Amino acid sequence: MDQAVAASLPPTVLDWQERVRSAHAHKTPLRIRGGGSKDFYGARLGGEVFDTRSYSGIISYEPSELVVTVRAGTPLAALEQSLAECGQCLAFDPPHFGPGATVGGMVAAGLSGPSRAAVGAVRDYILGLELINGQGELLRFGGQVMKNVAGYDVSRLMAGAWGTLGLLTDISLKVLPMQRAQATLYYECTAQQALDKLSAWRAKPLPINASLWQQSGEGEQGHLLVRLRGAVAAVQSALDGMGGTMLDHGQADAAWLACREQQLPWFSDMDPSHALWRLSLPATTPVLPCTEAGLQPLMEWGGALRWVQAPMQHAQALQALAASVGGSAVCFRPGPQVGLVASDDFGFTPASPALRQVQQRLKQAFDPHGIFNPGRLGDWALS
């Protein structure tokens, strides 16, 4: 590395580079970890723990430009608080899943909250980032403005890679102003009635930001929550025409927070011998027969995201069911009696030969010795 460039880098980044170079030379696996709030996800958690929380803080924030650049170990809650003080937010409503969640973990996991279907995913808000690859090289991708690029936008490739391709250092994100008006409507209906309502509303210019349907009791009946966000006039017009019962703000905020953090009774009362499955489906998909004992899936994102509780033995059946309608199914969280299992049994949808080849080539380019989070996403990420 050029001495002038090295002199301009923070000491923590230089130390990280040296540790990665040593791990590369000795083929020592590293387990990249921030607050550990998402340790439940993935096939294996192996290697020496590489704690990123020592590299924390906001590097630059320009509210007028809607851009913030932060260090990867920055607590996610601290960033959100700083944005809120300026009337801005991370529009994709990222889940924390614990008090220690970091910005780097947010990007690496690529998980978005209830508003994802309306505003986009984590990757859509990544403007640029810096990372250390598996050979200890510091690489920069993107910048601090949204623009068209020739070829693949590598910075967005890191969203959802779960740290298997590189160690994130600095991240630039697009932020948005908080909406001026917000309201949540409540409806009693079955799952199919909820899907029908949401389908009809999609054809209208309504400021729908999020939706949630969950079962009430043991029958088919449940309740649908719809969150409206936008200009005051737009929200008021929607309230006048959509019917339903408006919840008070405190009750609504608590419900959406519990939904985002999977703290609703539907999640917390899960059978400990079951796993939580995440089905990504076309929003127009009707109710699917994919549960047992009468427990119906919880639905978000206008029906495009459905949570299912089922034993690990149902992996192939769930994946086949999701694939039959053009979707996918993956084990999101094993129950406490399930534990972490071998990657072949964890519930990842098998990749096609062509996709697997792309994955392996990317892994070889960024991490040739496979030292970063080996096996976290299955066997393709081992080398």
Describe the structure in your own words.
By secondary structure, the protein is α+β, with helices and mostly antiparallel strands. It folds into 2 domains: 195 residues, 2-Layer Sandwich (Uridine Diphospho-n-acetylenolpyruvylglucosamine Reductase, domain 3), CATH 3.30.465; 154 residues. It has 13 helices and 17 strands. The strands form 4 sheets. An 8-stranded antiparallel beta sheet has the order 13-10-12-11-15-16-14-17, sandwiched between helices. β11 and β12 form a beta hairpin. The longest helix is centred in the first third of the chain and has 16 residues.
Keyphrases for this structure?
alpha+beta, 2 domains, 5-stranded antiparallel β-sheet, 17 strands, globular
CATH fold field value of the largest domain: Uridine Diphospho-n-acetylenolpyruvylglucosamine Reductase, domain 3
Strand order of the largest sheet: 13-10-12-11-15-16-14-17
Question: Into how many domains do the coordinates divide?
Answer: 2
CATH hierarchy class name of the largest domain? Alpha Beta
Give the termini separation: 26 Å
Helicity, as a percent range: 25-40%
* Chain oligomer state: single chain
Radius of gyration: 21 Å
Q: What's the number of helices?
A: 13
* Shape annotation: globular
Mean pLDDT: 91
Q: Give me the CATH architecture of the largest domain, please.
A: 2-Layer Sandwich
Our estimate of the beta-strand percent is 15-25%
**Low-pLDDT residue intervals, each spanning 5 or more residues:** 340-345
DSSP, total strands: 17
Order of helices and strands: HHEEEEHEHHEEHEEEHEEHEHHEEEHEHH
Give me the secondary-structure category. alpha+beta
Largest sheet: 8 strands, antiparallel
